[in-house]
Amino acid sequence: MKQEDLKDNVEEYIEKGQAKARSKNFYGALEDFNKAIEINPNIVQIYYHRVCVLKELGNHKQAMLDFNKAIEINSDYAIAYFYIGTLENDLGNGAQAIEYFTKSIELNPSFYESYVNRGIAKDNLGNKTEAIEDFTKALELNPNLPEAYYNRGNAKANLGNKTEAIEDFTKSIELKPNLQSYYNRGSAKAYLGNKTEAIEDFTKAIELNPNLPKLYIKRGIVKADLGNKVEGIKDFTKALELDSNIASAYYYRGKEKYLLGDVDGCRKDFENAANLGLPIAIDLLKKFPK
Q1: Distance (Å) of CA 236 to CA 94, 152, 222
Q2: What does the pLDDT profile of the chain (290 residues) look like in tens digits?
Q3: For the packed helices 195-208 and 213-225, what is the interaxial angle rounded to 10 degrees?
Q4: Inter-axis angle of helices 146-158 and 112-124, to 10 degrees?
Q5: Would you put residue 174 in left (φ > 0), alpha (ψ -120 to 50) or beta?
Q6: Rounded to two decimals, what is the model's pTM?
Q7: Ramachandran region of residue 77, left (φ > 0), alpha (ψ -120 to 50) or beta?
């Protein structure tokens, strides 16, 4: 077969594979990329496309091998180092991930995704100050990254800088409304005493996903803190309807029942929390009369 025909065949298989991947036919896409590599195993882009499919199929080991092969073909292929870094991070190898993201940045200093992901890896390892620097650099390169604002907000909040964290969560929401930014912004506002706005944020998060018990628990706590114990109890009850094995929801509901004079209801909730292993509920039960 002529060289031009082989080239046409490779491009045809790549196009077919990409189309199948877009339609979520990952196994079909994998077959096409495999055929393209059989014809010409020295085109780095094919390995990139195949890795995207392999990641969707959960085959991280082969994905890692593919990008190492891509680096053998072209040692300056920045995106390969980036994706190996993401794979290492997914596997919990944060230190190794940082090395790959750093190499990617050395090869392409404008690769803002590498800064974001290196920041996440650093944050996971507890190096929040350097993580913030990476998120900030990514935003200098591209100011429209909701994930960079979100992750920088988290790091700032964990360092105690709640006010700036709220600003970052707000920017993340402006760019792309998302549950976690509403939830974390609400938590930061509640910490600073702005409980009414915190409730609004938790409510917005619930609208985005009404099936997460932690959202109702968090909102219930803040409502109770504002003196709205009945509404707080309703939220704890809703959380338990979604998952009846949440010890903290029984505990918080029991506490509010006690303050409303429902001692029997309180005891029952504390018993459930204690049966689920919550230490504070176990201790408080000892104070109840038999």
Answers
A1: 37, 30, 11
A2: 444 544 568 899 999 999 999 999 999 999 999 999 999 999 988 998 998 999 899 898 888 899 889 889 988 889 889 989 998 998 899 999 999 999 999 999 999 999 999 999 999 999 999 999 999 999 999 999 999 999 999 999 999 999 999 999 999 999 999 999 999 999 999 999 999 999 999 999 999 999 999 999 999 999 999 999 999 999 999 999 999 999 999 999 999 999 999 999 999 999 999 999 999 999 999 887 66
A3: 160
A4: 30
A5: alpha
A6: 0.85
A7: beta
Contact 45, 83 (CB under 8 A): no
Residues in Cβ contact with 21 at an 8 Å cutoff, skipping those fewer than 6 apart: 29, 49, 52, 53, 56
Q: Quickly list DSSP for 171-238.
A: HHHHHS--HHHHHHHHHHHHHTT-HHHHHHHHHHHHHH-TT-HHHHHHHHHHHHHTT-HHHHHHHHHH
Domain boundaries, the chain: 231-290
Distance set, CA 242 to CA 211, 215, 255 (Å): 7, 11, 20
Q: Which helix (H) or strand (E) segment is 54 a member of?
A: helix 44-56
Classify domain 231-290 by CATH number.
1.25.40.10
